[in-house]
């Protein structure tokens, strides 16, 4: 593409130079005087050109061709190399002209590397351990190597009490005649196994790891030989067996004393239970006798009085002489008014309910109880949950017509309360369990399902 553009440029410049040369030749043949340019009209000029000598025209044409040939076939590369074109002021290179590249700037001198910070001995040891273990294990192994380095390089013997610290264990205060299956010796063996995992050459790359582990193995062997019964004499074995027998006897004696104390406690609780049952039986018998006495006295006071004229009611008719109704036949006036009078007071402490059904979606889950004696009714506070705890007390006036205590459990709903179950306790049962907790099962609204709801309360009578 660059060579084609150069050729086209050369042809265009040659044509322009040829045209200019022709014009110059024509002007030369015509003459350069002013009279040749001051003609009357175009026709006169044309006539002058027609009568012009053609030899002069061809001479001018030859001069023009000779002047254009060097421009067409001359190689302009030499001049361009000698005098390279300056780029435009806009910074764009001239088309078809190769602009020489600027020399590359010299590379900057490399900065001196900062000196690495000195590492602590612990960090150096951790790096030497390598990355085959977890960071916690590597840290522990490095600390153990640094702490044992002074002992590994020692030549004088080491105290046995100091060797226990190598395995992170306190020196035992007991005698050195321990059994190999003793918990202390088993713990020592486990500590050695953990150290073996820390200093194994496949995981620990520290150059002192193997030496440190061999040192720990030697210490372990010395401790096992010194604290086990491998080298005890007959006298030592006899004394040890006597001490063990004595300790076993003391242990058995202590167990026997504990067993006796436990049996005595059980017997005491059983006697207390029997004594409590006897007192309860005596109390019930006394209550029964009191009720019988009160009933007999009541029957004696309500006997039929003799017929008197003042108490007779007027009867008219044919039976007036034989049928006379007396007030003594229906009893006294006080007995007629007694059903409306209170004969005692009932105190009820409603404690809790258990195992109520799970609330449905449109129910709030708040439960309350309604306790009723005759026409008297009280309502407990509303408590949420399947095992509500109320701990509320009520008092009722007991009349002669009242014979039962009724308890109904409801669950609060959005539109109406949902009935869960009811319970009826006769006054005879309440009198028998007066002052003691009573637990009864609630009767659900329908017997479908295996629900087992329990109600706990405490009630007591106070008779006037």
From TrEMBL:
<dbReference type="InterPro" id="IPR035892">
    <property type="entry name" value="C2_domain_sf"/>
</dbReference>
<feature type="transmembrane region" description="Helical">
    <location>
        <begin position="54"/>
        <end position="73"/>
    </location>
</feature>
<feature type="transmembrane region" description="Helical">
    <location>
        <begin position="7"/>
        <end position="30"/>
    </location>
</feature>
<dbReference type="InterPro" id="IPR000008">
    <property type="entry name" value="C2_dom"/>
</dbReference>
<feature type="region of interest" description="Disordered">
    <location>
        <begin position="80"/>
        <end position="138"/>
    </location>
</feature>
<protein>
    <submittedName>
        <fullName>Gnl protein</fullName>
    </submittedName>
</protein>
<feature type="compositionally biased region" description="Pro residues">
    <location>
        <begin position="102"/>
        <end position="111"/>
    </location>
</feature>
<keyword id="KW-1133">Transmembrane helix</keyword>
<feature type="compositionally biased region" description="Basic and acidic residues">
    <location>
        <begin position="232"/>
        <end position="260"/>
    </location>
</feature>
<feature type="domain" description="C2">
    <location>
        <begin position="326"/>
        <end position="442"/>
    </location>
</feature>
<keyword id="KW-0472">Membrane</keyword>
<dbReference type="Pfam" id="PF00168">
    <property type="entry name" value="C2"/>
</dbReference>
<keyword id="KW-0812">Transmembrane</keyword>
<feature type="region of interest" description="Disordered">
    <location>
        <begin position="229"/>
        <end position="260"/>
    </location>
</feature>
